[in-house]
Amino acid sequence: MKRPTLLCVDDDPGIRQLYELLLGSNGFEVLLASDGRQALKSLRSRSNGVDAVITDYEMPGMNGIEFAHEVKRKNPFLPILMMSGSAPSDEDSLASIDASLPKGTSVHKIVEKLHELLLHSHQPPPIPLSRLVPLGSVLAGVALLGFLAPRVWK
């Protein structure tokens, strides 16, 4: 069975080593990147894909939210877990983040959250009702045409 591949993005080399050691020993293949730009290059060059991303919020150059927006623009179903001591609280900023945990969370809880994200990553999000309303109008028009056409062409 293929081990899930994680891309772990953090500017702190100690945290990256910790991810590699702890997540690697919990059944994940771990790729490391020191910032958002390096992580985006890694995602583009990886031929067999990445199953999930863990990112820090505060990083030089591109913060975790900006990185997540770029990732989701190209791959909206790739799960992103933010691990940080500080992060924005407004929902618009967190729209590209699938889950967040504070740094210092136990490995067990991180692994549990990753498995949960991976389980749901293969399911497309539900279609909002607003996207179905135009379809209802089209179907009503077709039904009306089907009802009126035989009467008009008699």
What are its keywords?
154 residues, 5-stranded parallel beta sheet
Produce a short descriptive summary.
The protein is α/β, with parallel strands linked by helices and about 150 residues long. The chain has helices at about 15-25, 35-45, 65-75, 105-120, 130-150; strands at about 5-10, 30-35, 50-55, 80-85, 100.
CATH domain topology: Rossmann fold
* Quaternary status: single chain
The CATH level-2 architecture is identified as 3-Layer(aba) Sandwich
Strand content: 5-15%
Number of strands: 5
Nearest-angstrom radius of gyration? 22 Å
Chart the SSEs and their pairings.
Elements: E1 5-9, H1 13-24, E2 29-33, H2 36-45, E3 52-55, H3 64-74, E4 80-84, E5 99-102, H4 107-121, H5 129-152
Parallel strand pairs: 1-2, 1-3, 3-4, 4-5
Helix pairs in contact: 2-3
How would you characterize the overall build of this protein?
- With 154 residues, this protein is an alpha/beta fold.
- It has one domain (5-128): Response regulator (Rossmann fold).
- 47% of the residues lie in helices and 15% in strands.
- It has 5 helices and 5 strands, in the order βαβαβαββαα.
- A 5-stranded parallel β-sheet has the order 2-1-3-4-5, sandwiched between helices.
- Helix 2 runs parallel beside helix 3 (64-74).
- It is elongated, with a radius of gyration of 22 Å.
- The relative contact order is 0.13.
- The model has no long low-confidence stretch (mean pLDDT 83).
